[in-house]
Predict the 3D structure of the following.
Amino acid sequence: MVCTNEQLSLIAKALSDPIRLQIMDLVAKGSLNETPIQKCCTKGMCVCDIQEALDMKQSKVSYHLKELKNAGLLYERKEGKWHYYAVNQDTLERFCRELNDRFFLNLLHTEAKVE
Amino acid sequence: MILKPHVAINVRNLEQSIEFYRHLFGEEPVKVRPGYAKFDLDEPALNFTLNEGGEVNGGINHLGIQVGSTEEVLAAKERLKSAGLATFDEMDTTCCYARQDKIWVTSPDGHRWEVFVVKADADQYGKSSVNFESGSACCTTNNG
């Protein structure tokens, strides 16, 4: 199995907050080198960029970043006193593949059998 | 100069309490030191500190955060639920002469917190329907 039930739940819970989805959007965009929206970072986004983009105080942004990081959805890199974040593609891929294998492929298989 | 109420509470286990309060407030503490943590909230304006050790039972009936809308009550409920913390609903309840939507959650030290919104004043005093072990609900005529 690619993802256990516990892992699936943890990721789904982390994604279940609209603020965290906004943060994922921002980090995903910020991770692309082509059109960087970040100001103070070279690679990935730092708390201050997200804080500014969402007009939220640092302690709130940090709370949501920690929840996403705990679910394995974000990488965190420390450089001096700054923490930079990037989307962990691997977790997302495993999450999607697991749902696909369990519910989509299985369903197709069952339907085929019934016919 | 910003005026903020300051509340300092004793907790048995700092780590567990930080985990509880970061989910309750939806914020990280701004300062964590051995035996001490500080949350500095803007909404509501509150300087809230945790001090490890000492007596955790005082004359507190319960604590709460009044928010502006039912949506905010439900958002807090979702946040607490997804953190694995049990909550009790009391939607559209009459309590303390007001019609309210609220949820309850209990801290690791047994302090009861409510997140509520006041929808309208009520003629009746009302009484919370949640039964707590201590038997003292949110609003009793004796100590409310």
Q: What stands out?
A: The radius of gyration of chain A is 17 Å. Chain A has a mean pLDDT of 84.
